[in-house]
What we know:
Structural class of chain A: alpha/beta
Radius of gyration of chain B: 23 Å
Number of strands of chain A: 12
Helix content of chain B: 25-40%
Number of strands of chain B: 18
Oligomer: heterodimer
CATH class of chain A: Alpha Beta
Bound molecules: adenosine-5'-diphosphate, magnesium ion
Strand content of chain B: 25-35%
Number of domains of chain B: 1
Shape of chain A: globular
Largest sheet of chain B: 11 strands, mixed
Number of helices of chain A: 9
Largest sheet of chain A: 6 strands, mixed
Order of helices and strands of chain A: EEEHEEHEEHHEHEHEHEEHH
Number of helices of chain B: 13
CATH topology of chain A: Rossmann fold
Strand order of the largest sheet of chain A: 6-9-10-3-11-12
Amino acid sequence: MLQINDLHASVEGKKILKGINLEVKAGEVHAIMGPNGSGKSTLASVIAGKEEFEVKKGSLALEGEDLEDLSPEERAHMGVFLSFQYPVEIPGVSVTNFMKTAINESRKAKGLEDMPANQMLKLIREKSELLEIDRKFLSRSLNEGFSGGEKKRNEIFQMAMLEPKLAILDETDSGLDIDALRIVANGVNKLRGKDNAIIVITHYQRLLEYIVPDFVHVLHDGKIVKSGSKNLALELEEKGYDWLKQETVV
Amino acid sequence: MAYTEEELKKELETKEYEYGFYTDIESETFPKGLSEEIVIAISKKKEEPEWMTEWRLEAFRVWQQMEEPEWANVTYKKPDFQDISYYSAPNKKPKYESLDEVDPELLATFEKLGISLEEQKKLAGVAVDIVMDSVSVATTFKKTLAEKGIIFCSISEAIQEHPELVKKYIGSVVPQKDNFYAALNSAVFSDGSFCYIPKGVRCPMELSTYFRINQAGTGQFERTLVIADEGSYVSYLEGCTAPSRDENQLHAAVVELIALDDAEIKYSTVQNWFPGDKEGKGGVFNFVTKRGLCEKNAKISWTQVETGSAVTWKYPSCVLKGDNSIGEFYSIAVTNNFQQADTGTKMVHLGKNTKSTIISKGISAGQSQNSYRGLVQVNSRAENARNFSQCDSLLMGNRCGAHTFPYIEAKNKTAQIEHEATTSKIGEDQIFYCNQRGIDTEKAIALIVNGFSKEVLNKLPMEFAVEAQKLLEISLEGSVG
Ligand SMILES: Nc1ncnc2c1ncn2[C@@H]1O[C@H](COP(=O)(O)OP(=O)(O)O)[C@@H](O)[C@H]1O
Ligand SMILES: [Mg+2]
């Protein structure tokens, strides 16, 4: 599904990603862990196509198609979804209106008509129930005055609505209490299937108890320094990252 | 044109000898320039009674003594008032034979606005066959109104048919000498609309569709007079979302609203005059005086969406004369490229327990300048007056400007006045967030702008709101990236 080869990326002349290799196959869940500032969010942004980040070297492909020249919205239309670490506020635009626009814009790109209103309503009802979101919440302005947890839950609600091929969850667990975590994880697991792939970026093993990864990678200073099974996450929880940093020096 | 003996004689008697004036009043367009003779000729052309002619002349004399105002935050080359022709007969001849001859860019815009083919033709000045449909709609419409005693006609017709109403109210809210442009309008207004709602009558429909069809070619100096008698209600829509191109660069309209005891008037405007090209050339100068008078317990709401004109100078205001009266102003002003807008409102609190609300949303893009200018004035006898003002500005890019000039004059200690102002910028992060969800940048901006303007858009009648929303999108097209 996703193929990343020797990816180097910079922002404002500063090198952040320094040779990432990663292959994510359909049906898989990959976890990416690593200390703050190691480049996890940058990697997510580069996959999603944020223009500030300049790809200096290497390649990035989704289902065999090179992503380099594709705009963020084109990538979204191909099925890339990013659950943001810091979701932005859009005053005056309700969650519902935003979702309606997003869905219909993607449909338009595929040459489809707008989704009929009753179908849209049904979808909204179904997904808001899945994520235990109150209907009143959906008429509020997008992310405006939302608590940290509400923002994250709303991101996953959007993911559930859009049913992406490749979902990248950037620290979706931070700010969630244990109940919310379970609800969100449940929503993510519903998406899991043989045709989808998920990349989970997290600091904590906790989330990975609910969304069990097939692979765990450790990102440090713009490189994947270690990859392993889900046990690696446990090991990291115990020992922290320092031992890995030393390993890379050696 | 061949005169009969009789006609020629009449002509000579009425014009030439009486006033020593030689303009052929049968001609379709008057010569350039403004003088007492021209004012008289306009009045004659419209077969107005003498009091109306006198009223115009008074206005003209005042205007001659006045200077064009300079205080607004706009710069433009002042029009030469002697280089304008002040009367042009309504042009009945179509400009084009078919839509194929019309500027494709204009048609593309009509398309985006979802304007029907028939209406596109009308707006672009293409010959139309008589559309039975719209004619019959208009007729049914008129019948419904007439049954309720509602008068809705052109101001010229009103001067003929309802002189007592016009005489009583014209200039009662915006006197001839009010300001330079109002004085000019009073002297030379060519047409406009008149509306009277009798006591206790609720106008059963938005005065809208009909209005749009009939006012597609609005004049240069329009005069509108709306009178809501005691306990009545009317919602009035003016303007058109379709872009209006006009050879006339200067537009100076006057709108007067009178809400008698317990009456309510909602007045909504969508203005989309040609703003000039991307370099800022051409474009309409729009200098408008709009004011409403509220008697006891009356309410007037102004809602406006301003996207057009090269230069806009416009302050719909309310005089809250009666106790417990309410004035509201909801405005969205968009400027792009080189447009300049100086707009806002005046709320004059004279009565006790009067209330006013001002919500102004300014959106600037390109190299445009967008100014809000508002005055809240509380008279010494206006006990417990209250005002709430909120002025929000949204900037797109670094080359445009937003300015807020709130003035407060409170002469009564019990006044409660609140003012809030914010300025924000459309952020790259907001755009990227939308992009990531599959929404392209153009659409993302439209979404953000609509969200920003929502409180005002919500005040517009439903169908108008949808059009206005599309209009905002179109006005800001190409403003980013
Ligand atoms: N827009 C930016 N401009 C400058 N530096 C940035 C920008 N975004 C991220 N960085 C820098 O890149 C590095 C990696 O950041 P990030 O990808 O957010 O790390 P992580 O998500 O792993 O905590 C950090 O040093 C951060 O300061
Ligand atoms: Mg991060």
